[in-house]
Amino acid sequence: MREFKQLSSILWKRNRIWIIMIIALFLLGQSFTVNNEITGYNYWITERLASLDVLSEMWDSKESYTSGDFYNTYYNKLQIQTREYTKKYKDGIPEDALSTFDHKFKALSDEVGYEIGKIEEYQNMRYNPKTDKNNLNTIDGLVIDELYQYDRNVNDKLFRADGFHKLNITKSIFNPGFGIFMVMLILGFLLTSLEHLTPYYEFTRMFPWSNTKTYFSKITLGGIIVLVTHLVSAGIRYGQWKNSIYKNIIGLNQIWSEGLILILVVLGIYFMFMSIGTVSGNILGNFGMLIIGFGGIQLINYNILGLSYVVLGDLSNDYWLYKFTNWINELPEYIQVILTPITIMDSYSYNPTNNMKVFAFFAVSLVFLALGWFWTNHNKSERSGMLIMRRDVSLYAQALAVITTANSIFMLFRNTVGSRVISIPIFIIGFVLSYLFYKKLFNVRIGI
Q1: Residue 184 in 3-state DSSP?
Q2: Which of 406, 402, 399 is nearest to 429 (CA)?
Q3: Which of 14, 142, 220, 320 has the fewest CB atoms within 10 Å around its CB?
Q4: Which range is most confident: 6-15, 91-100, 125-134, 235-244?
């Protein structure tokens, strides 16, 4: 504990200006982000409430419309009703509003024949290219489609509290956005690869405690900073929501389950940033290793596919690599995130159906955390300032960098020119130039 306090004090004094600055910029940006999000809710909430009134009114006289007239009249009336609601509720939507509209939604769904709660099945049908969409162009189809939008954007987020329906904004409050990722990325740089730019890294080798204690002290200090920043950000977001027109109809539900799931995502990404940084001898190497670490098997798959194009030319749909790619894409999400960690960022909407994906990603991050501990204890200080601290990892990263760059150049010319005869010499030239460039880059020392 004493060593942790001493090291934390050293790290904080060395990096506090940068840490305070990036956190301040992040929290300032949060206020603008939440304001835009709340403004966007004018469609997702206010317009969805208005849609029920308009649909209920027009449904009773639907026989007097053609489908085209119904569509145009509905959207014209919807815009007018939404504006009226925005003015009417400028001081806050009443607490009982969602309960009132819930009755309207259920009554209209019964009349139309919309099955409430089957959002995923309806969404698959709606966006499946093989599904007949003609029914969506009828009056009944248009009404059902609007009820689906209400079900997905309002009804699916409702919970009961204090005798009223409330809109659950837990995910909105705790969702890890782009800003917190940038805070973690810069923090990872400061505590790992950027140390090699100055003699500070050599100074850390003289600390009177083990490399293991240094490593986990950094992880702990950075983790505390990330968690506190994330929770302060959540508090700011919640405060702004409570000062919006939705203040009476919002609430936090299942905060421990949903909130903790999102915190696991944040910590998992932070652990990967930190562990990958330990094997990086400078910031360029850190960027490259992040691409390799998060890209996973998809990066390797991309290179095999590119080399297959070079050797075999155009590939048929039954080519084994296409089948392999399709097989990967059909795997459960929690398997995909193990093979390709970057897929954790596919969507910021986590729910109980893909909690396993989050747990799997967090388990992967712990594996990287263990690798970071191993690298910390086996790095060679004489490679400080070079792209990669370990020679074996450096050789793998260099080979992958050469092939990826050559493949990217080949694919670019192939898609532009369309001639394999020209593209193959381009690949050879790109490969040679990439090899010479990375051979030089991987052996250059950056820093003092």
Answers
A1: helix
A2: 406
A3: 320
A4: 235-244
CA dihedral 146, 152, 157, 162 (to 10 degrees): 30
Query: Taking all residues of the chain, what is their mean pLDDT, rounded to a whole number?
Result: 82
423 alpha carbon, distance to own chain's centre: 35
Q: How sure is the predictor about 349, in pLDDT bands with cuts at 50, 70 and 90?
A: very low
Q: How far apart are CA 412 and CA 267, in angstroms?
A: 37
User: How far is 100 from 153, CA to CA, in rounded Å?
Assistant: 17
Six token digits for residue 409: 């150049």
Tokens of 119: 């959002």
pTM metric for this prediction:
0.81
Residues 6+ apart with CB under 8 A from 441: 284, 387
* Helix/strand/coil for 166: strand
Q: How distant, in Å, are the alpha carbons of 95, 158, 260, 285, 293 from that of 161?
A: 11, 10, 21, 51, 44
For residue 169, give the nearest of 37, 333, 282, 364 by alpha carbon: 37
**Distance in angstroms (rounded) separating the CA atoms of residues 24 and 385:** 30
- Of 23, 25, 26, 358, residue with least CA distance to 171: 358
Residues 231 and 318: their CA atoms lie apart, in Å, by 49
Could you tell me the two tokens for 155?
């009804």
Sorting pLDDT into bands at 50, 70 and 90, what band is 289?
very high
Strand 250-251 to 158-161 pairing: unpaired
Tell me what pLDDT residue 415 has. Answer: 67
Q: What integer pLDDT is reported at residue 352 of this predicted model? A: 46
pLDDT higher than threshold 70 for residue 316: no
Tokens read off for 448: 């003092």
What are the pLDDT digits (tens) for 18-48?
999 999 999 888 878 888 887 777 667 788 8
